[in-house]
Amino acid sequence: MADTNASSSGANCLEKLKSYLRTQKGFILAAEIVLSLIVLICYAASTYGGYSAVAICEMIFAIVFFGIFMMELDKQIQVVNWVWSDLFRAGIGAVLYIITSLICIIGGSQDGARIAGGVFGLIAGLVFAYDTYVIFLQIKSTRQHTAASTDDRV
């Protein structure tokens, strides 16, 4: 009986994963995770792997947010404003990836892995920037613009 519950729970989780990957947000987060892993591998293969901290942190943050949104924990945990937290995560990730990637591309003249990591980092920076833009549009569309009341009766 315990095996049946465990397998149905695992199937439910796998079904949530498949359905969340089909959404726009799930696809963007999955792309961020894969690109961060590629950048991490390139920086690890480089002679100077000091820039791998950005890839590690952003990959972990993307995995955490992917899990939270996939399991719909953002609807259960109301203490944190998940949309704004995701906006800051994606915005900071975009800026950090673009800065570190430009530094690696400009300064890595003899290190092919560092240049490859920089190129993939620029692509990751653009994906993070697109994620920031999509989140911003989501925040903008959910905001209600109501006029202030001019009625003296309060």
Number of helices: 6
* Strand-pairing-aware structural class: mainly alpha
Structural domains: how many: 1
Determine the N-to-C terminus distance: 62 Å
The ordered H/E elements are HHHHHH
Strand content is: under 5%
Helix amount, in percent? over 70%
Give the low-confidence spans. none
> What is the CA-based Rg, rounded?
20 Å
Largest sheet: none
The rough form would be described as flat
Task: Give the strand tally.
Answer: 0
| Average pLDDT over all residues | 87
In words, what does this structure look like?
With 154 residues, the protein is mainly alpha-helical. The chain has one domain. It is 79% helix and 0% strand. Helix 2 (24-45) runs antiparallel to helix 3 (52-70) and helix 5 packs antiparallel against helix 6 (112-142). The chain crosses the membrane at residues 26-46, 52-70, 90-109, 115-136. It holds the Pfam family MARVEL. Its main location: membrane. It comes from Seriola lalandi dorsalis.
Key attributes of the depicted protein:
single chain, 154 residues, mainly alpha, 6 helices, transmembrane helix, transmembrane, MARVEL-CKLF_proteins
